[in-house]
Structures are given as C-alpha cells and as structure tokens.
Amino acid sequence: MIDAQIYSARSLLVVGAHAFDAEVIAGPLAAQAARRGVEVTFLHLTMGEQGHTALAPAAYAAQKRAEAARFAARLGIAWRDLGYPDAFLPDDDAVALKIADVIREVRPDTIVTHWHGSWHKDHRAAANATKTAVLYAALPTLERAHPAFSPSLLLFGENWEDDEGFAPAHLVDVSEGFETWREAIVEYELARGLSSFPYVDFYSALYRMRGCLNGTTYAQGFATTSHSFNAGGGMFAGARHRPSCGCGGDA
Ligand SMILES: [Zn+2]
C-alpha cells in the first residue's frame, strides 16, 4: 500500500504532456492529497492547443490556460506550464533539464507522469523526459539553480491513450478526491463535449472499476519503476540504500 506514503508526504508533482492529462492520470489523487495537506503541483509540458474545431491554436491555448487555472483553484493546487507546442513536444535532454529544474525547485516526494506505452508521441516524450529528469534532478555533479533532489516514488498514471502494456502495480484509494475532481474537470471544454471521446464517462467508470478491485469506492491505478531504476535512484539519494550503512534497507 502506497496510499500512506503519498498522502502523508509534503509534496506531489504531476507531469502531463498536455493540459488535461495530469488532470486525468492523477486528478482525484491530487484532490485527495491536497485535502490531506500535500502541496500539489501540475506541470503541463504543452497546453494541448491543437485540435479545437473552431478556435485557432493561440486562442485555444489561452482558453486552456484559463481552464487549467480554474481546475487547479477548485482543487487548491499549483500549476505551471513549459510552453512547448502541442504535437511537437521534443523527446530530448533540453525538456528533461527543464523538468529536472522544476523537480529540484518543488522537491516532490512523489512524481506521477505518463506510462510510456502510448500511441501519442507527446505522451511518449513526456514519459521519457520525466524519467530522464528524475536522473538529472538527482545528479549531484549537475549544477543548476537548485541543489540536487531525488523523489521517493515515481509512478505512471492511467490514460486512455497510453494503454500499450499498462498494468497497474498499485491501486490507490481516491474516494475522498473523486467528487472534487468530478466538479472540477468540467472546467475544461474537453470534458463538456468538445471531443467525441466521452472523457468524463470513461474516467469516472475507470476510477470506479479500479475502486471495485481495491475494495474502495474509487481508486486510481499506477504502474511503477523497475527494481534497477529504484536501485539507481537510491545510489544518488545517499547512503540509505547502501549495504555500508549496516541495514541494507531504507532505514
Ligand atoms: Zn495528451
């Protein structure tokens, strides 16, 4: 059970490719975490400004910034964006360094981002860049504006577009956060019928289905990192994982 680890932590960072992605891969989780006093930040790598049937990208980007702000206000969380163009998010070290700078500044105990198995190139790029960013944030020899920092937990959230090989290792109770999410998500036109995909129906049913399997009303599913990734992160985190500390564990 990672519920206590997430909800008793100081800080949570959710990295989404497009504004509205963080809101679905970790929206109810963020709402519940904020209620418990966790400082939550959403980082949108792009605003997801392509694809509106009537608005030009610049106008839709402005609309989505307003929607992101209203969603965040309802949850009582912070948000920021990196301003990359929708559909052209680079899968490169420059993006990873910008995410790493945010990690070093916010110092999140838990980070949630996309699962890499996605048909959407921006989602794959976000997943790759965030994993690299965790490495860059932790590298003590990499000098940036803020000192090195390593999160305790990196999770990959559930998104309908990221379903290639997604298998949740953890189900987290989000029952306290669901209603807040349900009321906040309709701040986005995407959730009010702009898309032909029935987002609210899909995600409400998904969170309920995960809850059925978790023994709670609602739950969100998360995949996690490999043992080797965790061991590597532990190397940069200091002596706590090293056998030389005498315990060989987390103590
Ligand atoms: Zn997206």
UniProtKB/TrEMBL annotation:
Record-level Gene Ontology MF annotations: hydrolase activity, acting on carbon-nitrogen (but not peptide) bonds, in linear amides
Organism: Kaistia hirudinis
Family matches, as Pfam families: PIG-L
Highest taxon listed in the record's lineage: Bacteria
InterPro entries found in the cross-reference section: GlcNAc_PI_deacetylase-related (IPR003737), LmbE-like_dom_sf (IPR024078)
Protein name (Swiss-Prot/TrEMBL): LmbE family N-acetylglucosaminyl deacetylase
